[in-house]
C-alpha cells in the first residue's frame, strides 16, 4: 500500500495506533473500575458479604490497573486526558449504586463486566496473533472480568431496584466511556 500524508511512516517495532488506543482505553477502564469499587466500599464498608466480594474484585482490578499503567510506560502510550473525570465519575457511580443497596452495587458490576467482556473479546479478535504479550494480558483479565460478572449475578444483581433500567444505563455509559477514552 502506498504511503500518503495521512498514513505516517512507521518503523519496525513502532506500536500500531489501534494498539495504542487499546492500551489507553484499557488502562482507563481498569482505573475507572478501581474508583467504582472504592466508591462502593466507602458506602458498604466491610460488613456485608457483598462488600467482601467487592473488596476481592477491587484487588484484582488494582492489579489490572497496575499492569496497564506499566504497559503505558513501557510502550510510551499517552494515558487518557479524561483520567480526572474517571476518578470522580467512577467513585460517584460506585457510591451511588452502593447507596441503593448491595444488589445495586452488584448490578453495576454485572453491567460493566458484560460490556468489558464484549470489549476485551473484540480486542482479542482484532489483535489476532500480532501482539502476544497484550493478547495474553487481555485474555487473563477478561477471564477475571467474567468471574466478577458471575459473582455479581450470583449475589443478587438482578434483584436491584429497576434492574433493567439501571443495567441498561450503566452499560450505555460504559460504551460511551470506552469510545471517549480511545480518542481523548
Helix content: over 70%
Compute the number of helices.
Answer: 6
The main β sheet shows up as: none
Percentage beta strand: under 5%
Structure description:
The protein has 184 residues and is mostly helical. The chain is built from six helices and no strands. The chain has helices at 17-44, 49-75, 83-99, 102-127, 132-154, 163-183. α1 (17-44) packs across α6. 36% of the residues are buried. The model is unreliable at 1-10 (pLDDT under 50).
Brief write-up:
With 184 residues, the chain is an all-alpha fold. It has helices at residues 17-44, 49-75, 83-99, 102-127, 132-154, 163-183.
Topology (elements, then pairings):
Elements: H1 17-44, H2 49-75, H3 83-99, H4 102-127, H5 132-154, H6 163-183
Name a few traits of the molecule.
184 residues, mainly alpha
Amino acid at each position: 500500500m502506498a504511503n500518503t500524508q495521512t498514513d505516517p511512516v512507521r518503523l519496525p517495532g513502532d506500536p500500531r495506533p489501534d494498539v495504542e488506543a487499546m492500551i489507553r482505553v484499557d488502562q482507563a477502564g481498569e482505573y475507572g473500575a478501581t474508583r467504582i469499587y472504592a466508591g462502593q466500599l466507602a458506602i458498604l464498608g466491610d460488613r456485608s458479604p457483598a462488600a467482601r466480594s467487592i473488596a476481592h474484585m477491587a484487588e484484582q482490578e488494582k492489579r489490572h490497573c497496575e499492569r496497564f499503567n506499566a504497559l503505558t510506560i513501557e510502550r510510551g502510550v499517552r494515558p487518557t486526558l479524561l483520567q480526572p473525570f474517571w476518578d470522580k465519575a467512577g467513585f460517584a457511580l460506585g457510591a451511588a449504586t452502593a447507596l441503593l443497596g448491595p444488589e445495586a452495587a452488584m448490578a453495576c458490576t454485572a453491567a460493566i463486566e458484560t460490556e468489558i467482556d464484549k470489549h476485551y473479546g473484540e480486542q482479542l479478535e482484532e489483535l489476532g496473533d500480532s501482539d502476544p504479550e497484550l493478547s495474553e494480558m487481555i485474555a487473563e483479565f477478561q477471564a477475571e472480568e467474567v468471574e466478577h460478572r458471575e459473582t455479581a449475578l450470583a449475589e443478587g444483581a438482578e434483584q436491584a431496584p429497576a434492574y433493567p433500567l439501571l443495567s441498561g444505563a450503566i452499560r450505555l455509559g460504559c460504551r460511551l466511556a470506552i469510545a471517549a477514552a480511545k480518542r481523548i
